[in-house]
Design goal:
The complex is a heterodimer of chains A (478) and B (244). Helices cover 24% and strands 35% of the residues of chain A. With 478 residues, chain A is an alpha/beta fold. In chain A, strands 5, 6, 8, 10, 11, 13, 15, 16, 18, 20 and 22 form an eleven-stranded mixed beta sheet that branches. In chain A, strands 4-3-7-9-12-14-17-19-21-23 form a ten-stranded mixed beta sheet. Chain A is globular. Helices cover 35% and strands 26% of the residues of chain B. Chain B is built from seven helices and ten strands. In chain B, the strands form two sheets. Chain B has a six-stranded mixed beta sheet with strand order 6-7-8-3-9-10, with helices on both faces. Chain B has a four-stranded antiparallel beta sheet with strand order 2-1-4-5, covered by helices on one side. In chain B, a hairpin with a 2-residue loop joins strand 1 and strand 2. In chain B, helix 5 packs parallel to helix 6. The two termini of chain B are 30 Å apart. The chains are: A alpha/beta (478), B alpha/beta (244). At the A-B interface, helix 10 and helix 11 of A face helix 2 and helix 3 of B.
Chain lengths: 478, 244
């Protein structure tokens, strides 16, 4: 490796590419491409029809442009919509059949799938470009009746569940990117937890964009049947490229009566270089429906990567007494931009929502919290508590808080608190005097600032996330 | 241990220290007294390496120049500053802060890091020695601490980090008599032939409990008088004005 490359690699440690032969659909967005994707995945006709319906709607839709971070126009005809490592064309039956190069890639990312199979703890579904390559712990989960598999497999094996729930939270007509995803989604994870089953381990998906000029459009669907519980975590990385890459995923969660879903994200897509060149456009639609009584959906996100992050993991609180939570850390450094937050739609009675958002801005970055709390007329005795804290480092970055609050009945209560502070030189000095260097000190203070969110993460990932928070801000002070 | 020769320091074009010389040998405890604005806290800041000062003169610690040595490196070499106003760091557990701090000092010396168990044992031992309720250590660093608790926490940190040179910047200000005794105990129990102390204070009161080897009077950026313990008592009676 050349010196320059070495230095680059130090900045974003997941910036490597894997030299692997891949099968690609030709560039462009049209019906033939959608048919190609559907065919290569051996999908039933109803699925193809669903995709085509979405595509025909897409033709009459416009990209939204109300967001704060603007971006150059994306030429959707100049992207690849399907890319898969060649070897996975013959579907691997077990981990031993998976291309060793892929396993090696995941090892570099810190997910040794092989070891994972042996160590109890986390079941991983790994998505490489457009396909799922391996799902660990399948047997153990099957025992409990839990389905955890690539969504392409679920479409074939569990069509009744997919048909019933796919698009039921994010309709195919929802908005431009969601509709685009519905037309061209390639893979993602599917989870079904049967009645009264508590999933015995964390379920996890790892997304990796490898091929260039490729968009990643994954689709995740999680259904927690009555009285069940599941905790799910996704992580993401991408190689460093000068071009911007689009990532437009859809994630749908459905919690029935007394069910609980905890969904955690650690997003570390390539953020672009220090001059703002390259990086991922992370335009993701995530929505959960608390469809049953006493159900609960909790989103936790740690967003440190991407050139632009634009997403609002939301909860639709349909069932009476249902609970929605959103815990977020969004870190932007250099030229990164984030416009993120949540929507809490209260429909049922006695519904509760809680929003804790921590935005950290450094360098020339711009960080916006945008959130909607909408309490319906019939959602009597509902409550929302929102807390938005922003931390600024240096004086070239920006932080904005844009709350939208609609309370349509008088028995409900909405609270909103917001603070903005700057990282304090005196605090840094105090830490330095106790022997911590600048980076350790920043890491410590920022982690303190984010604590309420970090402690929501599953134990195994909290430590990782803490480190990531420190790394993302390296070199931003002093 | 510490050699200061003709130290001058200015900040924002204002000269605060105007040629200060001081020598502290291993095992010695020096007290610095002086009126408001004489440069006491500036001296503490400059010794610890705080940014923003324009400095000339010589500053040697354990025979090596401290010129261009950053704050954390000085701390790693064994300089500790008990802050006049300890900082609050929300969300950071005090124990965790102390452990991180101790381990970075140990790492810099090539020693093995302490695991949580060994660390907690050390904390327990030191806090009970000083009569400090260890409950404060499970709270967020200095957040919501009373003035006395903050100062006690500084002394506990000093005991745990075990530095060669401890600088106490008006640690006694605003303390009740019980807290003052804890501070004094912390210092007295640490004194030995290898460790040095620089105790900066406004009042003679602390020196009733901590017996200095030397007392210096700082005025307008210079040491204008040096004596032994009695000098402090004298100052208490006559005030600083008479010395000028």
């Amino acid at each position: 490796m050349k010196q320059q490359e070495l230095e680059k690699a130090k900045e974003y440690k997941y910036g490597f590419t894997t030299d692997i032969e891949s099968i690609r659909a030709p560039k462009g967005l049209n019906e033939d491409i959608i048919k190609f994707i559907s065919e290569i995945k051996k999908e039933p006709k109803w699925m193809l029809d669903w995709r085509l319906k979405a595509f025909s709607r897409l033709k009459n839709m416009k990209e939204p442009n109300w967001q704060k971070p603007k971006y150059p126009k994306i030429n959707y005809q100049d992207l690849y919509y399907y890319s898969a490592p060649k070897s996975s064309n013959e579907k691997p039956k077990s981990l031993d059949d998976v291309d060793p190069k892929l396993i090696e890639t995941y090892k570099k990312l810190g997910i040794p799938l092989k070891e994972q199979e042996k160590l109890a703890g986390v079941a991983v579904d790994a998505v490489f470009d457009s396909v799922s390559v391996a799902t660990t712990f399948k047997d153990k989960l099957t025992e409990k009746g839990i389905i955890f598999c690539p969504i392409s497999e679920a479409i074939q094996k569990h069509p009744e569940l997919v048909k019933k729930y796919l698009g039921s939270v994010i309709p195919i007509t929802d908005h431009y990117f969601a509709t685009l995803n519905s037309a061209v989604f390639t893979d993602g994870s599917f989870v079904y937890i049967p009645k009264n089953v508590r999933c015995p381990m964390e379920l996890s998906t790892y997304f990796r964009i490898n091929a260039s000029e490729t968009g990643q459009f994954e689709r995740t669907l999680i259904i927690a049947d009555e009285g069940s519980y599941v905790s799910y975590l996704e992580g993401c990385t991408a190689p460093m490229r000068d071009e911007n890459q689009l990532h437009a995923a859809n994630v749908e969660l459905i919690a029935l009566d007394d069910a609980e879903i905890k969904y955690s994200t650690v997003q570390n897509w390539y953020p672009g270089d220090e001059n703002g060149k390259g990086g991922i456009y992370n335009f993701v639609t995530k929505r959960g429906a608390c469809r049953g009584k006493n159900s609960k959906i909790s989103w936790t996100q740690v967003e440190t990567g991407s050139a632009i992050t634009w997403k609002y993991p939301s909860c639709i609180l349909q069932g009476d007494n249902s609970v929605g939570e959103f815990y977020s850390i969004a870190i932007t450094n250099n030229h990164q931009k984030a416009d993120t937050g949540t929507k809490m739609i209260h429909l049922g009675k006695n519904t509760k929502s809680k929003i804790i958002s921590k935005g950290i801005s450094a360098g020339k970055a711009d960080n916006t919290y945008r959130g909607l709390v909408d309490i319906n007329k019939k959602a009597l005795n509902s409550r929302n508590y929102t807390q938005c804290d922003s931390l600024l480092m240096g004086n070239k970055c920006g932080a904005h808080t844009i709350p939208y609050i609609k309370n349509k009945n008088s028995s409900s209560i909405v609270e909103h608190e917001a603070t903005t502070s700057k990282i304090n030189e005196e605090q840094l000095y105090y830490c330095n005097q106790r022997g911590l260097n600048q980076e350790e000190a920043v890491g410590l203070i920022v982690n303190g600032f984010c604590k309420e969110v970090l402690q929501q993460l599953p134990m195994e990932f909290a430590v990782e996330a803490q480190k990531l928070v420190g790394i993302s801000l390296e070199g931003s002070v002093g | 241990m510490l050699e200061i020769k003709n130290l001058k320091a200015s900040i924002n074009n204002k000269t605060i220290l105007k040629g200060l010389s001081l020598s502290i040998k291993p095992g010695e405890l020096h007290a610095i007294m002086g009126p408001n604005g004489s440069g006491k806290s500036t001296l503490a800041n400059v010794l610890s390496g705080k940014d923003g000062y324009n400095i000339s003169g010589e500053l040697n610690f354990k025979g090596e120049s401290l010129k261009d040595v950053p704050v954390e490196k000085r701390a790693q070499k064994g300089i500790f500053l008990a802050f006049q106003y300890p900082l609050e760091i929300p969300g950071v557990n005090t124990n965790n802060f102390l452990k991180t701090s101790l381990n970075s000092l140990r790492k810099s010396k090539g020693e093995k890091e302490l695991d949580s168990l060994a660390f907690l044992k050390l904390v327990k031992e030191k806090s009970s020695e000083l009569g400090i309720d260890e409950k404060i250590l499970s709270r967020q660093l200095n957040v919501g601490f009373s003035g006395g608790e903050k100062k006690k926490n500084e002394i506990l940190q000093m005991k745990i980090l075990d530095p060669n040179l401890s600088i106490l910047d008006e640690t006694d200000s605003g303390l009740d008599i019980d807290a003052l005794k804890i501070i004094a105990k912390g210092v007295n129990s640490s004194r030995d032939s290898k460790k040095s102390f620089l105790v900066i204070t406004h009042y003679q009161r602390l020196l009733d409990y901590i017996k200095p080897d030397f007392v210096h009077v700082l005025s307008d950026g210079k040491i204008i008088k040096t004596g032994c313990g009695e000098l402090a008592e004298e100052l208490e009676k006559t005030g600083y004005k008479k010395l000028n």
